[in-house]
């Protein structure tokens, strides 16, 4: 969607959106529009029992006195209490309502309201509109014309239009990363597999990202047997991709992000149930987030040094597949008994985390992974689980989550949980039993951080949605890119 900003105006075609607060008389542009319609908008509001609550909506088609095709009146509740994410939600609601309406363009008349500065409100409104405009329709060949989106342009008309347009540039850059993440998570496993994913990451070099791709031979020489063991049952070769954005001072130690990239997860020999297995195309969601983040940082030319590392494997059952009971030696030298081959993501991350801390000496490492179903039982689809022994990292991620709507919730880690993965056969086992499954998975990862300040974000409940929301359709959400971009700004810039 193309979004522009202008001074307040009454459009001469297409759709027009105006706002009203809760239990309040019309003001500003809304009052002017109502007057031009000879009070038809206020009459429609009364007839439609419109009270101005957030989400209230009244629509007048072919309004007399105006040349527009329709006027949409939206409630904003108490404007003084609206946050940036609330304005994004309003923008998403506008697109959702008009996307397949037949309208090609919409003008949004945004007055100054108590609370958020108008330029901030307008920029976040535009961000919400752009986020909601995304559709992954690459494989839809028989969609009816009535369901196809028509809305592709929007103008936000407000006094602070110049400042809003300047602010929106950053949102637009970051959203390009969100859309890359959504694309990656949406694609089927016959299109996105380790080599093809690595090629997409390689394309970020066009934006100035340095990209290196490690092959299986490279990883074998480094001793990455934990990662390689997961992919050994697949006909697809595994890859480790290293992305570097060097936007900060040369002396600045980098911040590192590590992503799990299991491009399809059957569970291996510990085979998953067949029902719903098609969803496991998004088990590379952590790697998708890290890749989208690197694009976002490069697109906005972040003044920070960032390393993104993604371990890409396909977990398949075959005569060559890893077996329950196998013991592997990780790059760190620590040995792991593989109790369950479906607890594979932590094996991938074990080597990726160790490689990252050993190679780049980062000031912090944050890993992201669709790691456990247990986190969905704990938190549903409202929060990602956050595990760290750093109060500073936890507070920073929580604040960034509140600002962006990509929320995280901190869960505990400690020695008592760590003991659950001790093993009689090897240094550790890759599962700790049914109790505290998400926590013991985090404890496993912590053993490969070499005491670098670290956090693990379990995004299993967040990268994919089975229902529409204000900022995305059913499908890939793009969760995490804006969270981490905001976190980078708070720590590095």
UniProtKB/TrEMBL annotation:
Gene Ontology biological process terms in this record: proteolysis
Residue ranges annotated for the Cytosol aminopeptidase domain, each copy included: 340-347
Record protein name field: Probable cytosol aminopeptidase
Main location class: cytoplasm
Cofactor: Mn(2+)
Keywords annotated in UniProt: Aminopeptidase, Cytoplasm, Hydrolase, Manganese, Metal-binding, Protease
Enzyme class: hydrolase
Cofactor binding note: Binds 2 manganese ions per subunit.
Molecular function in Gene Ontology: manganese ion binding; metalloaminopeptidase activity
Signal peptide: none
Protein family (similarity comment): Belongs to the peptidase M17 family.
EC number: 3.4.11.1, 3.4.11.10
Record-listed Mn(2+) 1 binding positions: 265, 342, 344
Catalytic activity: Release of an N-terminal amino acid, preferentially leucine, but not glutamic or aspartic acids; Release of an N-terminal amino acid, Xaa-|-Yaa-, in which Xaa is preferably Leu, but may be other amino acids including Pro although not Arg or Lys, and Yaa may be Pro. Amino acid amides and methyl esters are also readily hydrolyzed, but rates on arylamides are exceedingly low
Active site residues according to the UniProt entry: 272, 346
Species this protein is from: Iodidimonas gelatinilytica
Role according to the record: Presumably involved in the processing and regular turnover of intracellular proteins. Catalyzes the removal of unsubstituted N-terminal amino acids from various peptides.
Residue positions binding Mn(2+) 2: 260, 265, 283, 344
PANTHER family referenced in this protein's UniProt entry, alphabetically: CYTOSOL AMINOPEPTIDASE, LEUCINE AMINOPEPTIDASE-RELATED
GO cellular component, one term: cytoplasm
Protease keyword on record: yes
Gene3D superfamilies in alphabetical order: Leucine Aminopeptidase, subunit E, domain 1, Zn peptidases
Location in the cell: Cytoplasm
């Amino acid at each position: 969607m193309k979004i522009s900003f202008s001074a307040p105006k009454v459009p001469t075609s297409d759709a027009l959106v105006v706002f009203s607060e809760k239990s309040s008389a019309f003001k500003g542009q809304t009052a002017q529009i109502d007057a031009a319609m000879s009070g038809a908008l206020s009459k429609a509001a009364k007839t439609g029992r419109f009270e101005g609550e957030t989400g209230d909506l009244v629509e007048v088609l072919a309004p007399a006195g105006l040349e527009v095709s329709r006027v949409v009146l939206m409630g904003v509740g108490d404007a003084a209490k609206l946050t940036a994410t609330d304005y994004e939600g309003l923008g998403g609601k506008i697109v959702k309502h008009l996307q397949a309406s037949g309208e090609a363009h919409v003008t949004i008349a945004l007055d100054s309201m108590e609370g958020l500065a108008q330029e901030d409100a307008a920029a976040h409104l535009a961000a919400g509109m752009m986020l909601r405009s995304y559709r992954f329709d690459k494989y839809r060949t028989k969609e009816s014309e009535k369901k196809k989106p028509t809305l592709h342009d929007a103008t936000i008309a407000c006094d602070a239009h110049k400042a809003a347009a300047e602010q929106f540039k950053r949102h637009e850059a970051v959203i390009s990363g969100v859309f890359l993440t959504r694309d990656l998570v949406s694609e089927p496993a016959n299109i996105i597999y380790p080599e093809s994913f690595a090629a997409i990451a390689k394309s970020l070099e066009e934006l100035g990202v340095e990209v290196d791709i490690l092959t299986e031979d490279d990883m074998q020489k480094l001793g990455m047997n934990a990662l390689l063991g997961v992919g050994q049952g697949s006909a697809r070769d595994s890859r480790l991709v290293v992305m570097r954005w060097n936007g900060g001072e040369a002396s600045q130690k980098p911040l590192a992000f590590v992503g799990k990239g299991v491009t399809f997860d059957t569970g291996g020999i510990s085979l998953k149930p067949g029902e719903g297995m098609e969803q496991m195309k998004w088990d590379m969601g952590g790697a998708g987030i890290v890749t989208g983040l690197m694009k976002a940082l490069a697109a906005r030319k972040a003044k920070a040094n960032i390393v993104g590392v993604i371990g890409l494997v396909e977990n398949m059952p075959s005569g060559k597949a890893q077996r329950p009971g196998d013991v592997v030696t990780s790059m760190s030298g620590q040995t792991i008994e593989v109790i369950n081959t479906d607890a594979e993501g932590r094996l991938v991350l074990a080597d990726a985390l160790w490689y990252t801390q050993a190679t780049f000496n980062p000031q912090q490492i944050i890993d992201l992974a669709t790691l456990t179903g247990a986190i969905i039982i704990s938190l549903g689809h409202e929060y990602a689980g956050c595990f760290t022994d750093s109060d500073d990292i936890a507070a920073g991620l929580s604040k960034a989550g509140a600002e962006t709507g990509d929320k995280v919730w901190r869960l505990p880690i400690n020695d008592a949980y760590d003991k659950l993965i001790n093993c009689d056969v090897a240094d550790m086992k890759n599962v700790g039993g049914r109790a505290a499954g998400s926590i013991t998975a985090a404890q496993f990862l912590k053993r490969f951080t070499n005491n670098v300040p670290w956090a693990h974000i379990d995004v299993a409940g967040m990268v994919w949605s089975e229902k529409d929301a204000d900022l995305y359709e059913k499908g890939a959400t793009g969760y995490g890119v804006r969270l981490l971009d905001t976190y980078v700004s708070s720590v590095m810039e």
